[in-house]
């Protein structure tokens, strides 16, 4: 049998896919190119796609000579990791209970989770600030973990629940017959089977923590606690913006996000599609 030739529809779909990819990647390209331009070339007209005199001075100055931005990156990593861990610790048992246990008012709980997920962060920032002020948690990493988890937890529960629903019934009983209690059955039997869902949720929670701006702005005043999203504002002054330095730091900040999606792409896409088809 001869090889089937692709029809015009496939060629058109390929062209559209390539164009769409280039369109979405152009802002990343422009951000990197801007970071290589000296200030004298930033406002030339028409804009130059390739700088005439590319320079890595913005990177050297912000990451080698002055290492304050490295501290901000470290803070962002701590906040993102803490948000991911806390969200998974809370979301996994909650989603398991909503999927496998007979709970009264389950549909109402799911409806509340959907409603809470649609609340903008600005509505939560002030109540959380008042609460954390009273318990002396301002300028504390744990406060940022909790604040970001309030945003990520409803999403995590709703995504994880279909994975637990897809498991065969009777797994817990079989594990208990083998000597496991309910907790060890959940920990040793159930959780490994929903690993794709846990990885999907973990990635998104990490990225939400990494990109947090509003909670960090509201709940921190100490520069030693603040993340990279607030550190970027150091380049925005009253009389102008140091665009090349700003874009250099933003490029470095985007690298972990790109690496995560490149290395874990199959888990992220597979987890979302698998969870969406099971209910």
What would you say this structure looks like, in words?
About 70% of the residues lie in helices and about 0% in strands. It contains 13 helices and no strands. Residues about 275-279 have low confidence and may be disordered.
In short:
The chain is mainly alpha-helical and 279 residues long.
Q: What global shape is seen?
A: globular
Name of the CATH architecture of the largest domain: Orthogonal Bundle
The percentage of residues in β strands lies in under 5%
Oligomerization category of the chains in this entry: single chain
What are the main properties of this structure?
single chain, globular, mainly alpha, 279 residues
SSE blueprint:
Elements (H helix, E strand, L loop, with lengths): L7 H29 L20 H9 L2 H33 L5 H12 L3 H14 L6 H25 L5 H7 L4 H12 L1 H16 L3 H6 L8 H4 L11 H21 L1 H12 L3
